[in-house]
Write a structure and sequence with these properties.
Blueprint: E1 3-9, H1 14-25, E2 34-40, H2 44-56, E3 61-65, H3 71-81, E4 86-89, E5 95-96, H4 100-110, E6 116-118, E7 121-124, E8 141-145, H5 146-153, E9 163-166, H6 167-172, H7 184-192, E10 200-204, E11 209-212, H8 216-223, H9 226-240, H10 247-266, H11 274-288, H12 292-303, H13 306-328
Helix pairs in contact: 9-10, 9-11, 10-12, 11-12
Amino acid sequence: MTLTLAIPTFNARSEHLDEALSSIARQSRLAEVDVVVVDNGSDPENASFLVSRAQVFPDFRFVRHDTNLGYDRNLMRLLADITTDFVWFFGDDDILFDDALSEMLDVLRAHPEVSAVLCPAIFFHETSELSAVTRHGPGGFTILNDDGFIHRSAYTAAALSTLCVSVARMRSVDVEFALGTNWVHFGAFLQIFSGEHTSVGVLMKNNLLAVRRSNAERWFANFGNQYQSGLSLITMIDNGRSSGLKTTFYDFYRMKRYSANLIDILTLAWPLSLAQRDALARESSRHFGEMTRFKVLDRPILRSPNWVKRLTSRSISLAGAARRVVTSR
């Protein structure tokens, strides 16, 4: 069993990338894996910084694309060049905890038949927060098949760094429907567990890594805000049904998205133009149009002027505060 740690990057903040690479370099069993950093056509200043990192981290392999391939195609190009049995994708601003690599290698060598391993993550804004974090859970892992694995993992695999997959299985699935959505890793993950043959997944119980949330400008540029990104994920899964994705997966994630709709609509990055709001409302109706709450509350707020959204948000906050006061009595 062999493993590659693969870090796709594009115009990363130098201090964040350094922290990510340093967290990998500290791993006690680093010599047992390949590490590749793939620059997806960064601007000259960022590209020069990456060249300098090759001197600091001589055990890592650095690759550069002269032009930006896009997030999804960069991942698939990276996958095509990997020669190991498994690949653990890793975000260029995330942090790998000490001994996390050792825990992953132990699982893969004990269960080389698995299709994917998912790692719970701690979400953080600044690195200083991690000093107060207790990363260890109960230890060990759970082995699950097909739907059970998907339902237990929920949105875990949406964060790139949480996902370690069999290279052969990921290459074998059709991900054309996910290209251009910035969700190709998640589409491939779902396809692996949609096939005719039973797939086995491992869900780790320890937090092996920390996923950075403070890089908002990069996230919004790629995905939009929380509601927009969640909606695009559901649309990707819906489109994937024509390529073999299970309808049960679409139904499961659609309801997970719907349960969070209202609060995420109220925190949308406003002001959006009327045309943008209308487009979001139409796309939302595609998935939730038959649901009463969406018709009565979610869609009208989504299409409403900013002052209506602020008033509704304030009313919901006050109602929640009042309920907490009543409950405390």
